[in-house]
Design brief:
Elements: H1 27-36, H2 43-53, H3 67-77, E1 82-90, E2 95-102, E3 107-114, E4 119-122, E5 126-128, H4 137-141, E6 143-146, H5 149-164, H6 172-175, E7 187-190, H7 200-211, E8 225-229, H8 233-240, E9 247-251, H9 257-263, H10 272-286, E10 290-296, H11 304-314, E11 319-325, H12 339-350, E12 356-358
Parallel strand pairs: 4-7, 7-8, 8-9, 9-10, 10-11, 11-12
Antiparallel strand pairs: 1-2, 2-3, 3-4, 5-6
Protein name: Probable dual-specificity RNA methyltransferase RlmN
Enzyme class: transferase
Cofactor: [4Fe-4S] cluster
């Protein structure tokens, strides 16, 4: 049963449940699943090694498992959850957007961004989004369904395989024309399609798969993971009790309830101060600085007085403000702030001693930047 005040997701009529995959299961559950089909429990560790450490689900490469066992293990624990429709690249190939078709035909997107000193992957937790923020292409498309834990994890596994194999150029070697070669994923942001905390259990399961030591999981650091939310207060309180060291990012976009009610409709349920207080609670329990995401929209939320109000709300708190110049979306009446208004907004926040930066936007040319993911085949 949902807890009081929590949002619940109702699957569309006729929606199919994603088939069970190894990545949906805890290490103990994998042993039980393997034993249930008549295999020795230690096969679970072998399968985990192949998927989470070697990034393969091809039975032909499971040379430590008898050929007679591979077929049924693949059938039971490695269903084909998702396939690549296409990759689109920009920034000399260092930014790559992937369009996925899920097992039921649903489309989602993820974005891999390689920098000289780090690699960040932006992943989706839902197909579409039900938060209905009017400046976001994903929100305007509506919600199709939640992704399973394995569908979330597989986006990262695919990205890590691509980096290992040198499929995404970048790094210091690119400057000399040598392409960049292999790399390791350093940061994961739940800022793709969907509201992560509206798919709470599966997102938490994915974080555990990502951060469990190899071969039980991918062995990534919780400190390299950022979970974004528009401010589902009960879910933030619940997330605070998980013991994670992930960063929490609140998509605020307005410091006053009157405007935020319009830009982030869930604000009619949980107001600005309530959302921020929940974020500060998570920060205190995790020891991580809270990130405040704020899309700057020309003549809508970029007035210097709003910057001053935001600075007053955050003064003295363990926060960092990320300002995001609004990325264009088809049919939108809104656009990014003027340079002089952006500068005044930054100065108004900084005057209160609050750290603030303007995010370096990547992927606009391929509709892969923040707020642009719409998962279309056009």
């Amino acid at each position: 049963m949902p807890k009081p005040g929590e949002l619940t997701f109702v699957a569309p009529r006729g929606a199919k449940k994603p088939p069970r995959h190894l990545a949906d299961l805890s290490p103990a559950e994998r042993k039980d699943a393997v034993a249930a089909i008549g295999e020795k429990p230690f096969r679970a560790k072998q399968l985990s090694q192949h998927y989470f450490a070697r990034y393969t689900h091809d039975p032909e490469q499971w040379t430590d498992i008898p050929a007679s066992s591979r077929g049924k293990l693949r059938e039971e624990l490695f269903p084909e959850l998702m396939t690549v429709v296409r990759h689109l690249s920009t920034d000399q190939g260092t930014t790559r957007k992937t369009l996925w078709r899920l097992f039921d035909g649903t489309l989602v997107e993820s974005v891999l961004m390689r920098y000289p000193d780090r690699v960040t992957m932006c992943i989706s937790s839902q197909a579409g989004c039900g938060m209905n923020c009017p400046f976001c292409a994903t929100g305007q498309a509506g919600l199709d369904r939640n992704l399973s834990t394995a569908e979330i994890v597989h986006q990262i596994v695919d990205g890590m395989r691509a980096l290992r194999d040198g499929d995404v150029p970048g790094g210091t070697a690119q400057a000399s024309g040598s392409g960049g070669g292999p790399a390791r994923l350093s940061n994961i942001v739940f800022m793709g399609m969907g509201e992560p905390l509206a798919n709470y259990n599966r997102v938490v399961g994915a974080i555990r798969r990502l951060t469990d030591p190899e071969p039980d999981g991918l062995g990534l650091s919780q400190r390299g993971i950022t979970v974004s939310t528009v401010g589902l207060v009960p879910a933030i309180h619940r997330f605070s009790e998980e013991g994670f060291k992930c960063r929490l990012a609140i998509s605020l976009h307005a410091p006053d309830d009157e405007l935020r009610d319009t830009l982030v409709p869930v604000n009619t349920r949980w107001k600005v101060r309530e959302v921020l207080d929940a974020g500060f609670e998570y920060s205190a329990k995790s020891g991580r600085r809270l990130s405040i995401e704020y899309a700057l929209i020309r003549d809508i939320n970029d007035q210097a007085w709003r910057g001053d109000r935001l600075g007053r709300l955050l003064k003295g708190k363990p926060v960092h403000v990320n300002l995001i110049p609004l990325n264009p979306t088809p049919g939108s009446k809104w656009t990014a702030s003027r340079p002089e208004d952006e500068k005044a907004f930054v100065e108004a926040i900084a005057a209160h001693g609050v750290p603030v930066t303007v995010r370096d936007t990547r992927g606009q040319e391929i509709d892969g930047a923040c707020g642009q993911l719409a998962a279309t085949e056009r």
